[in-house]
Amino acid sequence: MQQNKTISLLSIPVLVAALGYFVDIYDLLLFSIIRVPSLKSLGLSQLAIDTSGKAIISYQMYGLLIGGIIWGMLGDKKGRLSVLFGSIILYSIANIANGFVQNVEQYSWCRFIAGIGLAGELGAGITLVSELIPKEKRGISTSIVAGVGLTGAILAYFMKQTFDWRVCYFIGGGLGFLLLFLRVSVFESGMFKSIKDTKIQRGNFLMFFTNGKRFKKYLLAILIGLPTWYVIGVLITFSKEFGEKFGIKEPIDPGKAVMLAYVAISIGDLFIGFVSQWFKSRKKALYIFYAITVLGLVLYFMQYNGTANGMYAICMLLGFGTGFWAIFVTMAAEHFGTNLRATAATTAPNMVRGSLPLIIILFTQLNQSGYSYITAAEITGVIVMVISIIAVIMTEETFGKDLNFIEE
Rounded to an integer, what distance in angstroms lies between the CA atom of residue 23 and that of residue 326? Predict the structure, then answer.
């Protein structure tokens, strides 16, 4: 294969990928931020807001799971740019439609379709940037994409503070269509173009399961990302309910908790790229951030009779600790050849997002089987962290790996 053309850290593809992920995160986290006011406006009781909220976010995650497979395969078969254009059109339309929903069923379907669209953005962007940037700077470039992109949650929070929840969805859809104009200036990966017209098999999702070594790499690549969505999907999204259980007198605003957590995640994602560069190791950087996450979990579950500000501070600590999303997705891209890279980098994060319903089911079943709300969450967290730590230990180091290869 011919040598790939490389670009600088702040080139147009890197910046456009970062802005794409910014819009993606705005739409992805918007429901968590406006869950309470939007469901209350539909006439739901406090109990229904909790149960229907879990159901709706699960629908969104199912969409991400399915969309990850669709867009990942398309990215390897038709090109990285096809995903960057197609996915944003789908989730922009879905978010505009979301502004018109009148009941929980319509809400669920809109989040499901939006989830399918949202699934393609990060994986395709990280794959494209990983293939265009020199291998020595790859971790920093993908951290820039994630770090800038994750601030989309901050915009979502301030939009919620300023506008009605329906308008917030319209804004998300509008931002997506604006981004399409910027995408025109982005060029395709040279690595992909070098195999595009060959007979090499590309984007075959089943290839992950036809080879034992490849399946192990793929499974481990997914499992190391689990703590992020346990923290965001359970502890942060339902921080209002946890605050009540902890006896915190001031009501917790889950939208504010999400926003603050994502400020910290964004900082963490930028920081971890430099940590990885310093140690010349993805795994050592992950161990450090896992340790911070564990510290945050311990403090989170010690908040009895605490304060709202204390909860927000701990949410930020947890956010910083789980700011390893960029390295996690980069590792997924680095593990696999050019003919399967977009499929891996797009499906792996969405498999993690798609695991949230399973994490919620575990949490709910433990709660219903006699454990308290808090104890059930603690047990769930221990299980998630143990699985992920074992996965990191077993996975191979990918720092500085040459990506100019294919999967046979």
Answer: 16
